[in-house]
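Worked example 2:
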Amino acid sequence: MTAAAALRLLGPAARRAAGGVLCRAQPCRAQPCRSHRLTLADDELYQRTRVTVLEPESPNTMFIEGYTSRGFTISGDLVVGPCAILPRAILQWNVGSYRDISLESLSLFRLLEPQIEILVLGTGDRVERLHPAVLKQMRECGIAVEVQDTPNACATFNFLTSEKRVAAAGLIPPRGTYVGM
């Protein structure tokens, strides 16, 4: 039924409320527009949201304090070689260089629960391009991937965790040394 037919059925009061103009119906929108007023039935357009608080102001938040060509200092602990920094753990990451980053080496990040929002990858001294299929697969899993050189990846990871984002990092040590981020 068109809008014009509906107004005819409703009578003169509905036509006056509509401005007396019979117009074509516009296609339905999935999202309400800015001038839309919510009614009781509109809550069906939105999915339920559930929030789980892991720990308020957790003292166990991972923070990258520095790096050397041998590894990283993370929350006071020295980690040798490439590492995977998860929201609640630090693991050795079995990659030698950015060329070893594949779907298999990133599978650890896809299995985490609760799912991480963003994965920061530090590829060493320079930003390196990863295979597009790898990045596409991570996007399909709902994980954003940020590929940076390792010094910038450390700073980005620290920023994201300070804002309480659910982030993880995969870091390959650069050749340079920096302590005291």
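The mean pLDDT is 79. The CA atoms of residues 67 and 90 lie 15 Å apart.
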